[in-house]
Amino acid sequence: MTILDKIMDTKRQEITAYEESYPAIEQFPDKPKLVDTLRNGRGVISEIKRASPSKGAIRMEVDVVEQGLKYEGAGAAAISVLTDEQYFKGSIEDLKKVARAVSVPVLCKDFMVSEIQIERAKAAGATIILLIVAALTDEELERLFRYAESLDLEILVEVHDAEEMQKAVALGAQLIGVNNRNLKTFEVSLERTAELAGQFPFGSGSVLISESGMNDTADAHRAYELGAQGVLVGEALMRSEDPASWIRRATGQEASQ
Ligand SMILES: O=C(O)c1ccccc1NCC(=O)[C@H](O)[C@H](O)COP(=O)(O)O
Q1: How many CB atoms lie within 10 A of CB 224?
Q2: SS3 184
Q3: Ligand 1, atom 15: nearest CA belongs to which residue?
Q4: If DSSP codes are grouped into helix, strand and coil, which group holds residue 205?
Q5: Least buried of 1, 54, 175, 222, by fewest C-beta within 10 Å?
Q6: Residue 183 and residue 161: Cα distance in Å, rounded?
Q7: pLDDT digits (tens, 9 = 90+) for 171-196
Q8: Which family does it belong to (predicted)?
Q9: Measured between alpha carbons, how far is 145 from 155 in angstroms, rounded to an integer?
C-alpha cells in the first residue's frame, strides 16, 4: 500500500465520520423575497422579542410558533426572530420553529460578526439576515454582505446616521433599515427616519424600513408617511393583547380607533 493509498483510506474514514455527525440540511416552507413584498408599501416586519437590554423582560414565556402564526395570519410582511441568548433571551431554536411554521420571510435578528453565523441562520431557515453598519468595519460589512448574497439570503442593512446610510447605499443594499433607537443611549425617536429618508435613493428599487420605537399604530403610519415602505416592530406587538389587530391597523386592513 502506497502512502497515498494510506492517506486516502484515512481520509475516507474521517469523512464518513464527519458525514454521520453533520446535521441534515432541513427543507423549510418556500418564502417570497421581502423586498418584493415591501415594494407594495406598508409592511410590518413583526418581531418575536422575549427581552431586551433597554427594557429587560418583555414576554419571556411566549409560544414562538403561536405568535409567529398570529403575525402571519394578520398579513405580516416578514417575521423577525431575535436569536441572541444572553441579552435578548432568544435562540436559534426559536428561529427554526418559526421558519418551519410560516411561509413569510424570516429574519434572523442577531449581531453578525462571522460567516459561520450566517450559515447557521440559513440552516435554521432564515431568509434574511441583519448587518448593523455601526457594529462592523467597512471590510467586515462588505465581506459579510457579499457572503450572505452568495447564499441567496436577503440582507437588512441597519443604519443610524447619514454616513452609515451612504455606506448602505454604496453596497447596493436592497433592504435598508433606519434604527430609530440609538444603540448607545437607547433613546428612541422617529426623527431618525425623518432625517435619513432625505438621503434614501427612492426609485432605485431598494426599500426603506423604519425600525424600533413604534409605540402604537399612529407611529407606524407616520413612518409610512415619511417614506418607509416597512416598519419593524417588536415590543409593541409582544405586549399587545391582539397583535393581529395591531398589524391590520398598521397596514390599513382595519380602521384605527
Ligand atoms: O431593543 C433594545 O433594547 C436593543 C438594544 C441594543 C441593541 C439592539 C436592540 N434592539 C434590537 C432591535 O433592533 C429591536 O428589537 C427592533 O428594532 C424592534 O424594536 P422595538 O419595536 O422598539 O421593540
Answers
A1: 19
A2: coil
A3: 234
A4: coil
A5: 1
A6: 12
A7: 999 999 999 999 889 999 999 999 99
A8: Belongs to the TrpC family.
A9: 7
Cα separation, 257 vs 231, whole angstroms = 20
**Cβ < 6 A, ligand 1 pocket:** 47, 49, 52-54, 183, 186, 211-214, 232-236
pLDDT digits (tens, 9 = 90+) for 245-256: 999 999 999 987
The pTM assigned to this predicted structure is: 0.92
31-251, superfamily in CATH? Aldolase class I (3.20.20.70)
Residues 6+ apart with CB under 8 A from 174: 35, 154, 155, 205, 206, 207
Q: Measured between alpha carbons, how far is 132 from 158 in angstroms, rounded to an integer?
A: 5
Which grid cell sits at 8?
486516502
The b/e string for 6-45 (b: 16+ C-beta within 10 A; e otherwise) is: eeeeeeeeeeeeeeeeeeeeeebeebebbbebbeeebbbb
Helices (H) and strands (E) in the chain, counts: 11, 10
Phi and psi at 167, nearest 5°, equal -65, -40
Alpha carbons 142 and 250: distance in angstroms, whole number: 34
- Check pLDDT > 70 for residue 74: yes
